[in-house]
Amino acid sequence: MDAVHTLLMDHQIKPSYTRVKIFKYLQEHKNHPTVDEIYQALTEELPTLSKTTVYNTLKLYIDHHLVKELVLKEQKHYDLITTPHAHFKCDRCEQLFDIAIEPPALDETYEDAFEVRDAQLLYHGVCRSCQRSQA
Amino acid sequence: MDAVHTLLMDHQIKPSYTRVKIFKYLQEHKNHPTVDEIYQALTEELPTLSKTTVYNTLKLYIDHHLVKELVLKEQKHYDLITTPHAHFKCDRCEQLFDIAIEPPALDETYEDAFEVRDAQLLYHGVCRSCQRSQA
DNA sequence: TCCATAATTGTAATCATTACAAAATTATAA
DNA sequence: TTATAATTTTGTAATGATTACAATTATGGA
Ligand SMILES: [Mn+2]
Ligand SMILES: [Mn+2]
Ligand SMILES: [Zn+2]
Ligand SMILES: [Zn+2]
Question: What pTM, to 2 d.p., does this model score?
Fold first, then answer.
């Protein structure tokens, strides 16, 4: 038996050959690969693999909280307020709210490894009025 | 004299009619409008306005740190590590690094206004090796 | 007025993501 | 096994925001 098999089965996901391959690729490449990187890497071993399958499979894993999507950009928004603050985006109504929290500074561990020029802190969830307008 | 005029002039930006209009729109709409929203709102008053101009003008303001771009999504990346942590993205080499910082929790002020389901903390800048490979 | 420069426009290209229907595979039951 | 249903995978086309770029227009000084 395979650990990935049992993990997927625990989540009611049928461990098809392709799905297991994609999962194991993520296990062996923790450096936040893109869809294209996953596709390019696996297409040798799985010559009939399609990119849609990679998208579909990742969506499946994300829905089961087995994989996290790093959402780094989207339709851009513009803010005249250039002082540090955070934002909350409602996943229902798509509204964007200001949050008066500053992104934390990097501590000594990272201080000389990275020169930070900008930080973005984004919360996702459901805003109050959208919570109410549900049952 | 106009405050926007002088502000732009201070930044060596010629305060053309269009540029002033776009800037004032941002001043009067602080809710993080998109390019399309800006364009749609101004196209009545400026019938010959083009979206490219909106893009160009915003880029100009961003370069002068008069406007901040909210980068909320981009080519997606996938992370098998679903526990809270932050990321640093190098603007030169595009590499993505893990940072062992948890996004701060929302305090009482926001606690019952927003139901947070996810948080993303992203730092931008230049990584060590890219700093070195410069003069 | 003439000319150089800058600003603006419009269209086409790019490219990641999504939609969707067809094809292939797998599971289930007769 | 064979038929049938359900699921998985595929391939292509659509979407839509952003960018590239060349053409056009406006501006300001000589
Ligand atoms: Mn804001
Ligand atoms: Mn990570
Ligand atoms: Zn909402
Ligand atoms: Zn770098």
Answer: 0.71
